[in-house]
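To the team - pyridoxal-5'-phosphate complex, inputs and output below.
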Amino acid sequence: MKNKTLAYGRQWINDDDIAEVVRVLKGDWLTQGPTVAAFERALADYAGVKHAVTFVNGTAALHGAMAAAGLGPGDRLLTTPMTFAATSNSALYVGAEPVFADIDPATLCLDPVKAEVKLKELPGRVRAIAPVSFAGYPFAMEPFKKLAAEHGAVLIEDACHALGGDRGGRKIGFDADMTVLSFHPVKHITTAEGGAVLTQSDAYAQALRLFRSHGITRSASDFEEEPEGPWHCEMQSLGYNYRLTDLSCALGLSQMRRLDAFVSRRREIAALYRRLLSDVSGLALPPAHEGHAYHLFPIRVEAAQRGPLFAHLAENDIRLQVHYSPVPHHPYYRKRFGYRWGDFPEAERFYHEAISLPMFPLLEDADVVRVADCVRGFLER
Ligand SMILES: Cc1ncc(COP(=O)(O)O)c(C=O)c1O
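Output:
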């Protein structure tokens, strides 16, 4: 019998999700309706924060966060090279420049010590710091809070990998000035495309809401001019149409009911991989943490083995990904900013050794055993 093809991630949609989307589809509001507010409330309550502002995707949410933080030409965003390009691209969208500090190999996330060195090199010019909870690892936020306070920077966690994770007994979403989420199908919950920013700040929430809807307000208390009639609205800044639809939010709201179960299953899968693979020589498992949300399960092998192992897994219908080619080494960044291999040794070493194994809640134990056997079989042959 042919093996089922496994990818590194995929969504889990059930009949309840479908019924909720159909219910909204038959109703009055396809967009700009009450399901958006209901999904935002569910997200904010889950994280224990005051506001959640949804966006069409995580990239637009990052763009909104940079704009709300006031980043613009002449400013810098400090982030990690080990992330998806959207993290640093969001600084470029607002005319700012992304700068990078290397990762800590113990967490695979931005190294606060190297971040501090970078901040000292660029005194007064880093307006925002965006650490990424890579793979779902809830890195310690305190050193970044301290750095942000010392350097007058806004702290934005790119938690697109970390919804449902915990840090110090609290859900991800509470620690930074703004926390950005993605609901792409490989993430912890999905709305197909979708994203959000979580924040405790009324001012950031208001700026984010304006930004995602053309910069136009219909709220009388915010008007700058005397209303000419009940139709009055004002465009007060340049915004975009980055609104998530009620259809997407219906799916998101339904998925939120299973978020904790999804994350528990991801943790079970991680524990099973660890049990099955911990004694394989030439293999390193990802850093563990009890609050890990396990968006990814990136293993490391010797750089020379990575390509052949990747091919071997593909031959066995396990079609994976490498997360990530360090962002500064994409041709666009190299050409525009002159980055060279060697600039970020830890991120580069990780990139050359990493493969993300399948990690999604629909995986069965037998699938995990099959993947682990395949990895072990290749490395021990
Ligand atoms: C770390 C990180 N940031 C941002 C994004 C962008 O999210 P989206 O795909 O929803 O635009 C992603 C998506 O993969 C991501 O992994």
